[in-house]
Every structure is written in structure tokens, then in C-alpha cells.
Amino acid sequence: MITAVTQSGSRASLLTAHRVPYCVTAHHGSASWNGNKLRFYSTEKPATIDYQGIQTLIKDKNAEYYLIDVREPNELLQGAIPTAKNIPLSQFMTAWSMSEEDFEDTFGYEKPSPNANIIVYCQAGIRSSRAASYLGELGYKGVQNYIGSWADYAEQSKSKA
Any catalytic annotation for residue 23? Predict the structure, then answer.
């Protein structure tokens, strides 16, 4: 039996027979073997944040966080949450594989470190949930999903005005 550890600290046990893996079990998720590479899939739900939490961060001038909108550019015409940066989900995997320099040249801000406080949102919380899970798989520790996302933010902001 071989135990592998992912960047995020998840462990997987790989049983082998004649050097060919035939069973994969994982702690904090599942894993699969494609013949030459072990892939891990997290089943843990990312942490979430709500409208009040977003408001608190936006108002705190000393808060250190990255608020990332994963909607596509044409969706941004509806508006965006103040302080948000955009990395469309369609570019997400490419973005996080970039060097720090290329990331900053492409998106206009510093690439977050794996320990940074990162909040992701989209239109309704589905794409941002995928984005949060992906960042978790890459080893990012402080990732939160604004589950209500833009639809919730726009509605609550309208009702509070």
C-alpha cells in the first residue's frame, strides 16, 4: 500500500498488485488512477460567506482579502461587488497555473498566496463553488464561497438602499 499526500494535505491510499494500482481510497475526497497519474477530487464543501460578511470586509479598510468574481466579462455589465477583481471561470485553471509575474500582467493585481483570504462569487453561487473547490485542491487554505453571489448581493443592496 502506498499513501500519497496532496498539496492541500489530503491523503490517499493506493493498493497495488504487480505494480499496477487497482484500488484507490482517499481521506477528505476521492481519487482515481488514469494509468500514470493519481488524481484527487475533494468532496469537502468550501467554506462560505454571506452578504453581511462581504459587507464587513468591504467596509474594513485594513482587511486583507481577494474578492474574485468568476463571471464572464459580458456578465459584468450587470454590476460587480465593490473591490472585486475578475477572473472568468473559463480562464480559471490557466490563471492559477501562471507565474506570479504573468498573473499580474494578465489580471492587473498580485497573484494571491496559498494562505491568502480569497472569496469567490459568480451569478448564483454554482460556478464560484467550483472555483473555490479548485483553489482548495491547489492548496489554497483561506478560500470562501459567497454562496448567494451577485444575485444575492444585488437584491440585498437594493433592499437596504
Answer: no
